[in-house]
Write a structure and sequence with these properties.
The chain is an alpha/beta fold. Helix content is 32%, strand content 14%. It has two domains: 4-181 and 256-324, Rossmann fold (3-Layer(aba) Sandwich), CATH 3.40.50.1820; 182-254, no CATH class. Helix 3 (124-137) packs across helix 4 and helix 7 crosses helix 8 (247-254).
Length: 325
């Protein structure tokens, strides 16, 4: 198995000269740059053992053939397979001849209405089931798992929980700005200078939850306080809906940091020191492991990395370099 510490050196990320701050990078990346390539995005529904279904989008270049590697990409909180960070990475990999499978977490994106249960930050078992089905569909093709933010936490958990399964079909794992300590990250967002980010997520979560209960009337009606934090939302809704005692229990059981010592595949964590959503100190707690590498960029914001070289996708180049080494 490849030692990640022997892989080629990573080229530093250089931000646009007019968008160097982490907050500006994060805001900018939510609207620009837009992908220029029309992706195939053919639908693939994957049934889960509990009866729910996951919707994936398959972007397969004409040059891709059986046995070639492919990438399973998992989005972040309140996102979907259409999130710009996912679409930009997919476009760059697609143009490089790589097949990408964009996974919608339960009830997200075009997968709304296919899952009775809701998504949460620790549902690594869903990724395991999707990987197993993709291995049957594309036998002999190495699977590289990539996750953004929440999806990065899930990907790290998925990669670490297969330490007793050497033949499980995950070849490498790449997590981009993952909140590996969920409680620390949520508390960080709750601080006054970042409460606007906290409220952005809460507003989107409330709306998606209302739509979910409308689609599944048997779940009953749901009412939220007008003013609440992300911690409040997880404490009153996510935790009880997903079988946890409370938000603290949910965060403790779902944070990837508690399983990283079991890292089972070559794994890369990419984060930015100026990320406005994630406190840098959480990465101080990452244990040493020969299969695990942490790359901290001076710039990049939260899953942004909008670079100064027009037409160049630093993140995609990094993903390609890492998975090919």
């Amino acid at each position: 198995m490849t030692d990640p510490n022997t892989k080629a050196e990573i080229t530093p990320f250089i931000p646009t000269w007019w968008g160097r701050s982490g907050t500006l990078q994060t805001i900018l990346s939510s609207i620009w740059p837009q992908p220029n390539t029309a992706l195939p995005g053919s639908h693939m529904e994957i049934p889960l053992t509990d009866g729910d279904r996951i919707l994936c989008k398959v972007d397969r270049p004409h040059s891709w053939k059986s046995g070639d590697p492919f990438y399973l990409i998992v989005h972040g909180l309140t996102g979907s397979s259409e999130s710009l960070c996912v679409s930009r990475l997919t476009e760059a990999l697609f143009l490089a001849g790589k097949m990408c499978i964009r996974m919608n977490l339960r009830g997200c994106g075009d997968g709304e209405g296919l899952a009775h249960q809701v998504s949460h930050c620790g549902r690594s078992a869903d990724v395991h089931e999707v990987c197993t089905q993709l291995h049957k569909t594309f036998p002999g093709s190495p699977l590289h798992l990539v996750g953004f933010s929440k999806g990065g936490n899930i990907a790290l958990k998925a990669g670490a929980e297969i330490s007793d399964k050497p033949d499980f079909p995950i070849t490498t794992c790449i997590a981009i700005c993952p909140p590996i300590d969920l409680e620390a990250c949520v508390r960080y967002l709750g601080e006054p200078q970042r409460c606007w980010i906290d409220q952005y997520f809460v507003t989107k979560l409330k709306r998606s939850t209302q739509r979910h209960h409308h689609r599944f009337p048997e779940l009953g009606t749901v009412h939220f306080a007008r003013k609440m934090s992300l911690y409040d939302f997880d404490d009153c809704y996510t935790a009880p809906q997903c079988g946890f005692d409370n938000a603290h229990d949910y965060y403790q059981q779902s944070s990837a940091k508690k399983v990283l010592h079991n890292c089972a595949r070559p794994t890369l964590i990419v984060a930015a020191k100026d990320d406005p959503c994630i406190p840098l100190k959480i990465f101080d707690e990452i244990p040493y492991h020969p299969l695990l590498r942490l790359t901290l960029s001076e710039y990049g914001g939260h899953i942004a990395f909008v670079g100064q070289n027009k037409g160049q996708n630093w993140l995609a180049n990094l993903v390609l370099q890492w998975s090919a080494s």
